[in-house]
Amino acid sequence: RSSPAVVTGGGPEGAAGSTVSVADLRGPATPAEGGTVRRHTLTARTSTVDLPSGRAVEAWAFDGQLPGPAITATEGDLVEVTLRNAGIEDGVTLHWHGYDLPCGEDGAPGATQHPVTPGGEFVYRFRADQVGTYWYHTHQASHPGVRKGLYGTLVVRPREQAGEELDLTLPVHTFDSTVVIGDQEGRAVHTARPGTPVRLRLINTDSVPHRFALAGAAFRVAAVDGRDLNRPGEVREVSLRLPAGGRYDLVLAMPDTPATLVLDHDTGRGVVLRPTGHTGTDPAPPDTSGWPELDLLHYGEPAAVPFDGGDADRHFTIVLDRAVAMVNGRPAFAQTVDGRGFPSVPDQLVAEGDVVRYTVVNRSLETHPWHLHGHAVLILSRDGTRYSGSPLWVDTFDVRPGEVWEVAFQAGNPGVWMNHCHNLPHQEQGMMLRLVYD
Ligand code: C2O
Ligand code: CU
């Protein structure tokens, strides 16, 4: 009875064949004991916004800001966000990327709610139970909506905070070929006393991967996609590749001499960490382009995982390729799943408690950052190489051309969930499917 088509709308009534009524799967209305309520209203509209350099861009923005207002909470708080649409003709929703909240709060048009049309509003409510670095963005017309600015950051900190800390949230976004990191186009400078704990929260809000290198300091990758790694070791002179939609938390102690976080090996771009008391000019960062890429499959130390990924109740193979598929009723080349474009891709049916295994195969010549809503997956292997480091739980993983990834998760969050390529033009072409709880 409900239309499965995302772009045209469709509703929260649940998928055909599913007994789940997504509209009822809402978050609690109160914080956990000792928590507070974090209330925001985000108003989406078209705006002309000045980038840090003063260059004006035609944006779609929340509250006229690029990025939208930063949402922060402490573990156990209740986050309540009223979304208003003040003139985005395509409609708008809020999807909480990487946050495993009740399905009715997920902001997926065609699966969990109708898009909010001009003049309308929708209230999202969820407990901040997951600590870490996340982001939010529109899921209606997500391409072009995210590219034009309908996104912001979501950071949840633990209740017990270690005293003085330099904690920087650094979303990377490209506006019409201008790359902005945090709120700077070139190099931002942050100072703290030598030895101060520093946390850099890197968030890739673009549709393509970005590369980071930290010159002048040793660091650890403390968390990936908001989830802590087990005993991550100290590394230096490595580069990190961050998939579209993904997040890394880097931690380090403020060094005695300036260090630079370099973006995409462009030494003019990034963030300078300068110890207080340092005088004189900051040293120019070195050329980082030859630094080896840190392979997170072999980083950190093993730890117990809650299920055996080799012994799954359900096994799905997802083949990603560019193929001829029906697009708007006509055959055309499109980004597809198993040779079909959404909504013609069959739903994946699971039952609560199932261990679900995916084999994700990229047969195309482009990278596909595969993203799941409502669930983090454990990476089992890439091209037959098993992970040997910390268990790696992610919500987005980059499947490069020719690669085969094995991942697994336990179905523990009932509802109807989108699963798609986070290169958003690919998603728009149909590289998407639904995971449906029976
Ligand atoms: Cu960040 Cu379905 O998306
Ligand atoms: Cu893709």
UniProtKB/TrEMBL annotation:
Keywords: Membrane, Metal-binding, Oxidoreductase, Transmembrane, Transmembrane helix
Domain Plastocyanin-like: 47-160, 338-437
Record bears the keyword Membrane: yes
A single GO molecular function term of this UniProt record: copper ion binding
Name the record gives this protein: Uncharacterized protein
Source organism: Phytohabitans houttuyneae
Lineage: Bacteria, Bacillati, Actinomycetota, Actinomycetes, Micromonosporales
